[in-house]
Design brief:
The protein is α/β, with parallel strands linked by helices and 258 residues long. 38% of the residues lie in helices and 17% in strands. Helix 5 runs parallel beside helix 8. Bound molecules: S-adenosylmethionine (SAM).
C-alpha cells in the first residue's frame, strides 16, 4: 500500500528535483560496488528508512524499506510499496522506528542538514550516509579546467565531512574511490569518459550542472568538445586515462549500533 504524506517542510529542494528529476533513473543507475559498501554498512537491518530516496538506488533488497523524499517526481519513479512524502528535517516517524537509516547523495539538498542528521539518529539505531567532502583534493578536472562555477555551487551546499561525522557521532568513515566505469551518473562519475559531459541528458542528471545557467555551461562544454577533438584533453590527462579509480572525496559515514 502506498503511504504518501504531504507534511514535509523542504519545499525549495523538492522543487529542484520536481524540475530536474524526470529521466533521473536512466542516467543514475546504482553501481554494484557502491551498493555492496552500503549494504555492508547497513548490516543485517530488517527495517530501513531511505531518506532522500529518489528512485530507490542502493536500497537493500532483503529489508523492509520505507522511502522518504519531498519530491513527488522522484517518489513517482520509486518502485517500492512504502513511500512517504517528507523532508529529512521532520521525519514523520516514532523514535527508534527503524533498524537503520540510509541517505545517499542527498544531505547537500536538505534545507537544514544538521536537523536532518539528528532526525536520522532519532528514528533509527544505525545510520549510513554517503556524501562528498568539499575539502578533498583533487577536484574533478571539469571543475578545475572548464567550470570553476561548480566549485561555488558545491561548496555552498555540501556540509563539511567533519560536521557530518560529528552530527552523527560516527564511528567509521569509508572512502569510495570512483571506478572509471561507475554506472551512477553523478557529477564525477564520468571522470575517465570525458565525452559524456557533452551530452545534455547526462548533465541534466547532476543537480550541479542543472543549477548552473546554460549560458555558463554550454560555452564551457564547447571548449571541452574542441579539446577532445584536437587531442589537447587526452594529452593533458594521459596519466588519468591509465587509472582504474580515483578518490574524489566521496565518503560513506557510518554511525550507531554495529
Ligand atoms: C541526488 S538525489 C539522490 C537520490 C537517491 N538517494 C540516489 O542515491 O539516487 C537527491 C534527493 O534528495 C531529495 N531531497 C531534496 N531535499 C530533501 C530534503 N529536505 N529531505 C530529504 N530529501 C531531499 C531530492 O528530492 C532527491 O530525490
Amino acid at each position: 500500500m502506498e503511504q504518501t504524506r504531504e507534511e514535509h517542510n523542504g519545499a525549495a529542494p523538492a522543487a529542484v528535483y520536481d524540475r530536474i528529476g524526470i529521466g533521473y533513473k536512466n542516467v543514475r543507475r546504482p553501481d554494484p560496488r557502491l551498493a555492496a559498501l552500503i549494504r555492508q554498512a547497513l548490516g543485517g537491518a530488517r527495517t530501513v528508512v531511505n531518506v532522500g530516496a529518489g528512485t530507490g538506488s542502493y536500497e537493500p533488497q532483503d529489508a523492509e524499506v520505507t522511502a522518504v523524499d519531498p519530491s513527488q517526481v522522484m517518489l513517482d519513479q520509486h518502485p517500492g510499496p512504502r513511500k512517504v512524502k517528507a523532508g529529512a528535517e521532520q521525519l514523520p516517524f516514532e523514535d527508534g522506528a527503524f533498524d537503520a537509516a540510509m541517505a545517499v547523495l542527498t544531505v547537500h539538498h536538505w534545507t537544514d542538514p544538521h536537523r536532518g542528521l539528528a532526525e536520522l539518529r532519532r528514528v533509527s539505531r544505525r545510520q549510513a550516509v554517503f556524501t562528498w567532502d568539499p575539502a578533498h583534493r583533487p577536484e574533478l578536472w571539469v571543475v578545475d579546467e572548464y567550470l570553476p562555477e561548480i566549485r561555488q555551487v558545491d561548496h555552498s551546499r555540501f556540509t563539511p565531512l567533519a560536521e557530518v561525522v560529528e552530527a552523527l557521532d560516527a564511528h567509521t568513515v569509508l572512502p569510495f574511490p570512483v571506478p572509471h566505469d561507475f554506472t551512477d551518473g553523478f557529477q564525477t562519475a564520468h571522470w575517465r569518459r570525458p565525452e559524456a559531459y557533452l551530452d545534455p541528458v547526462v548533465r541534466a542528471a547532476s543537480s550541479t550542472f542543472a543549477t548552473l545557467p546554460a549560458s555558463v555551461v554550454e560555452p564551457a562544454m564547447e571548449r571541452l568538445r574542441a579539446d577532445l577533438e584536437s587531442g589537447a584533453w587526452q594529452r593533458r590527462h594521459a596519466r588519468l586515462l591509465e587509472q582504474e579509480s580515483v578518490d574524489y572525496g566521496y565518503r560513506l559515514v557510518v554511525a550507531g549500533q554495529s
